[in-house]
Amino acid sequence: MATTTTRSEPKPLIVLAQAAGAVSGENPYTKLLYAGMADQNVVVHPYSRRSLIALRPDIIHVHWPEFLVRWNAGTAKAAADATKELALLWLARRRGAKLVWTAHDLGAHDKPDVGRLYARFTAAFNAMVDRVISLSPAALESVRAHYPAIARRPADIVPHGHYQGYYPATPTSHPGLAAARDAVAGKPTCLIFGQIRRYKNVTGLMQDFAETRAETGNDAQLVIAGEIRGTEEFRQEVLTKAAETPGVHLIPDRIADADVWALHDMADVIVLPYAQGSALHSGAAILALSLGKPIVVRDTPTMRDLQAIVGADWVALFNGTPRDALATAAALLAAPRATAPDLTELDPALTARQTVACYRAAHQA
């Protein structure tokens, strides 16, 4: 009697993934990315030092290497912490793991105050990277130029996934958001959302908004929502400027997932006048587009890549100061556009498959 054989399913890849989950109020980018791998014969575990030893992973996927070390513990403890992290990564690679880095930025937004230690850690980490994921072609060029040590490493382009369907279309129960919603109703409203950091140029935006509003005599509104990160001096600078600027509504809190849709629903356009620096991409920009809001962003090669995907009627580019961003926003709102942007290329299910293909290429190398 003839016998038949069946092909067995290949062994699943064991992946240790940084930021594999997200709680309410955090960016769910990685959560959605890894959820999309559920049917890809991949087993994803949260990254930890313990798991580096215990699980013998095939792939280690890091997004933000600066978050692997407790830099605020003092220089001596940070040095010991960085050394331990690098040693465990080295050991995991010796045991067969491949290190994949998604290069979101050219460095930490707020560089640790630890002298040259951070630069040495970055160099040592880069030396171990086996494969790079970049969110756009222009970003990959910037990363390779900034970090020559990884310029010849294999790389893949995997766009930042969208957030469509993640945030419920529900009214807000947050008192600050409710007050802002009532104040801006029926008036042209700009929004900047996300962690408030100095590089995002929030105080400059408030200054130019106040001057533009006074010159035009209109009733434009500006909503600023997100936790203030940085020094106490910076926090007070933001609070004071918001309190003294007519038309500005500051909600200096982490915004829960249940309130994100309502926050964006009160705005006509999202303005992101970030200073040029280490940031290559903006989750806030992708979020705004996911919720059907046009965006104004600085004219950079990576934002041109985003505009090429989504269209100039949804992604407007500016050069110069926040005043220029506000003028661009006014022109954008006056132009016709579709009811929603086409984000097909940013589908998290697609980006998950693309990321797994990167894993398999790294594993087989």
Automatic annotation (TrEMBL):
Residues 45-161 form the Glycosyltransferase subfamily 4-like N-terminal domain. Pfam families: Glyco_transf_4, Glycos_transf_1. Keywords: Transferase. The keyword Transport does not apply. Residues 186-305 form the Glycosyl transferase family domain. GO terms for biological process: lipopolysaccharide biosynthetic process. One of its GO terms (molecular function) is glycosyltransferase activity. This is Glycosyltransferase involved in cell wall biosynthesis. The lineage of its organism: Bacteria, Pseudomonadati, Pseudomonadota, Alphaproteobacteria, Sphingomonadales.
